[in-house]
Amino acid sequence: MGNRGMEELIPLINKLQDAFSSIGQSCHLELPQIAVVGGQSAGKSSVLENFVGRDFLPRGSGIVTRRPLILQLVNSKAEYAEFLHCKGRKFVDFDEVRLEIEAETDRLTGSNKGISPVPINLRVYSPNVLNLTLIDLPGMTKVAVGDQPVDIEYQIRDMLLQFISKESCLILAVTPANSDLANSDALKISKEVDPQGLRTIGVITKLDLMDEGTDARDILENKLLPLRRGQISAENTQPGTHTHTHTPYLQKQLTNHIRDTLPALRSKLQSQLLSLEKEVDEYKNFKPDDPARKTKALLQMVQQFGVDFEKRIEGSGDQVDTLELSGGARINRIFHERFPFELVKMEFDEKELRREISYAIKNIHGVRQENKLIHHNRKIKTHKNEKGEKVMLLIDIELSYINTNHEDFIGFANAQQRSAAVNKKRAMPNQVIRRGWLTINISIMKGGSKDYWFILTAESLSWYKDEEEKEKKFMLPLDNLKLRDAEKGFMSTKPTFAIFNTDQRNVYKDLRQIELACDSQEEVDSWKASFLRAGVYPEKDQPENEDGVPADTLSMDPQLERQVETIRNLVDSYIGIVNKSIRDLMPKTIMHLMINSAKEFIYSELLAYLYSSGDQSSLMEESAEQAQRRDEMLRMYHALKEALHIIGDISTSTVSVPVPPPVDDTWIHTDPR
């Protein structure tokens, strides 16, 4: 169509504003516009009504403008007004326009002076106006009224900054003539976002209230208190003053500004349209009730669920939880911290075991006779972790030596004991097993609980003032130490465990045991597992007499007692072997039987199971949220296409008007922030 003329630029921007306002989206676009800012009693309403030639804005005390008002002026033969939220209704009575603004404001903000950043769009057609678009913003205030929050000053300030901080926004800074121009709220906030004055136009109101014998001629001619884009008056009441007639001047300023920003606007529109095209392609022939679509969607969901499950187990997902262990990491903690600790805590019925051993020995009828030495069945019970998850570990440890040669068994067990002793000698005594912070719970009378930096090695537990490890507070050898659970109490609400000496000696100062606290139960379990690696095991609830011998041991002759003791030690040795095997094999077994089987079920059987379980139509029904999202995305896509079509045939090759030269505006006082 060629160049339709730069005079159509303002109506073009009006169409763009309507296109995006109608779908409730700003599309993050910075449309060229003029924002009107000023204090509550600066006379902003008079400025806007002067442009229209009609009284149509709400009046009153306090904050009157409580929502941004996008005012679009359109030159037309007929005179009427339209609201975007009242499509098709023409307002010819401007008193009704005022009432509608008040009603629409109260609809979102309530009737007691609340504010909202959601704009009201008003278009005024009149033969008395020139094409121009302005945004009226709430007046700046410092005092809350009614039910307004105490920070209303900062809420309004933030709203203003949302508009005037954009480089595409011209700022109409309104100041009354009977106030100190250097301390104008409007000019101060304008200078914050536009320090070079490239976008700020000053407006002087209430010239009739100036002191007698004074005038604003030098200010309006930009000689006194100059601004780069100059100052204009809201009323032409200064005789002999040759100033800009404000409406044509603002129209020219906005038109040039639109022309300068249009190329960047077109580029941004194209970029956003491109980002939506891939998603829109999926919906071009979209039919919500199409069975084929539902089948495809279900298949894609099942496949994605399988991928997500596998990534969760392997820890290779896009998002990493930084608050707690999850997925494969949680299973790994159970395998390598909780499970070994529970194995060590397993206890035999000592009385029953020794009885079985003694009966087995008594029932030997000959030196070479093969015998049934022990039949002992233990089960590791269901374990619940602190999150209530169950890891069902049901293991039958059958220590069955049926038809086993007695000498072979003794030789095998003795070899294992010697091997363990050699390995223990080879252990590196100074090897650091763990470092970290722990809290020592001590009564207030003895100094109170304190946090220390702990270092656990294969031979000792040391703690320092801090992690620089320069000031050592104590070193505790690990010999004869055991672990026991400790309840949370008055001293600490953190998860706690205790260390004590089996020889009934003091562990630290005059304490028979020290209680160590962590921030979480997971940390407690992890520290317990570290102590296991250092050879410090949990206590076993075995009643003993004063001599340290189990209380319910059978009375027997000395020779039989020695034999029972020997076999008992050998059984302990063998149990250690079995524990190690179970600790190694159980994670592999669970991974194979549970985790891998679950993955196989997801990939191979889940889809068929879902098809057989119910009505697929209702199962894959599109949710209201998804339908709304699809509708909003399609409306945004079409709005972007319409916007590009609107500006597609506007030529911007016209030579732009240069920006006015800089002026000295240091006279404007700025607030330190």
Automatic annotation (TrEMBL):
The protein's name in its UniProt record: dynamin GTPase
Gene Ontology CC annotation, any one: presynapse
Organism: Cyprinus carpio (Common carp)
Enzyme class: hydrolase
Domain PH positions: 431-536
Cellular location(s): Cytoplasm
The UniProt record lists the keyword Hydrolase: yes
Gene Ontology biological process: receptor internalization; synaptic vesicle budding from presynaptic endocytic zone membrane
